[in-house]
Amino acid sequence: MAINRLVSIKNPIINAMDMAALDHDNHLPLFTQWATEAEMEIGSYYQFTRQWALLDVCGCTAAPIPCNAVKIEASIIGNHMDNCCGVFGNILGTDGPFINPIIQNTTGMLVIDIGSGDNSNTYGQVQFHVQNNKVIFDAKYGIKQITLQYIGYELDCDGFMQVGENHIQAITEYILYKWCSRKRKKSGADLQEMQWHYTQWDRLCAHSRALDAELTPTDREEIAQIYNNPLAGRGLFLGMTNPNSYGYGRTGNY
Questions:
Q1: DSSP assignment string, 149-171
Q2: Contacts of 41 (CB under 8 A, 6+ apart)
Q3: Residue-wise pLDDT tens digits, 84-128
């Protein structure tokens, strides 16, 4: 896996504007939209970061989920922003086997009643769903606030998405391709230029994915089949190395 720092998506946008000899201010919204499309097409697990947000609840509806959110990892009722990382980490680490089915479920939210003077906690669950980027509860529970742990895009100080440094060239070529295809009347030279930028975008997009070590669906399926193969996968490994009451497996004597 390549180690690439995150940079603002404005870098490939400015590069494309400079190559097309365009004004930076007039075309920024359009180029930002094209750059976002290119980044979503490239995709990269390594540009997401774990983040937390506090949402206010009004009736059955919570405040909108942050726009940079990609997936809700966990959710707890109440305000836990003072030590959100520690709260989620302690709960998942200490009582993880018992509450992971609740806290990582997309339709259930965890309720915690922390015991006083001891280390015992009581857990419950309330039902919710996500609609129009908002958390909506199935009933009015009298909830005032909820704390979310989610995976999302990293943003710069101006609110622009941050992308992998190795994605800059690919995004630049995609913007230039879209700019060339935007022309209404294209000459033969314009068509050749548009095809050139598309070819470069297609090549650099695949190259960026390779640098990110992003697995294709076919690769993931093949790995899953190898992992779950009863004759050569994890099951055979456990059977050969773990002793059991029937006398099979290693016993530690050799």
A1: EEEEE-B-TTSPBEEEGGGHHHH
A2: 174, 205
A3: 776 776 666 554 444 554 545 545 555 555 555 455 555 566 677
